[in-house]
C-alpha cells in the first residue's frame, strides 16, 4: 500500500519536477499535472503507448487526456488519495519518454 509523500520528500523530490520541470500541483487535489505537445497525433500516441507499457510494468497508471498532438497527464495515487513516491517515479519515466519522443 503506497503512502503519502512527507513534506520533506515533497521538498526534496517533488520540487525539482515543478517549475522548469513542467509539472505543477493541481488546485484542490493532492496531484500533479503536466501537458505535452508533439508534432502530430501519431507522435503523441506513440508517446502514450511507450508510457502505457512502462506504467503497466510499474502497476501505476496515469490519468490522461489526448486530443490530436496534445497529451494532458495527471498523476496521483488512488491507494492513498494523494501523491506518493510512485507518482514521482512515473513522472520521471514520463519525462524520459517525452524526451526520447522529441
Ligand atoms: N495507479 N495512479 C494509480 N494509483 C493507484 O493507486 C494504483 C494504480 N494502478 C494500479 C493500482 N493502484 C493497484 O492495482 C495496485 O496498487 C495493486
UniProtKB/TrEMBL annotation:
Catalytic activity, as annotated: (4aS,6R)-4a-hydroxy-L-erythro-5,6,7,8-tetrahydrobiopterin = (6R)-L-erythro-6,7-dihydrobiopterin + H2O
Alphabetical keyword list: Lyase
Entries under InterPro entries matching the protein: PCD_sf (IPR036428), Pterin_deHydtase (IPR001533)
Annotated GO biological process: tetrahydrobiopterin biosynthetic process
Statement: the UniProt record of this protein carries the keyword Lyase: yes
An example Gene Ontology molecular-function term: 4-alpha-hydroxytetrahydrobiopterin dehydratase activity
Enzyme class: lyase
Family recorded in the similarity comment: Belongs to the pterin-4-alpha-carbinolamine dehydratase family.
Entry-linked PANTHER family: PTERIN-4-ALPHA-CARBINOLAMINE DEHYDRATASE
EC number assigned by the record: 4.2.1.96
Protein name: 4a-hydroxytetrahydrobiopterin dehydratase
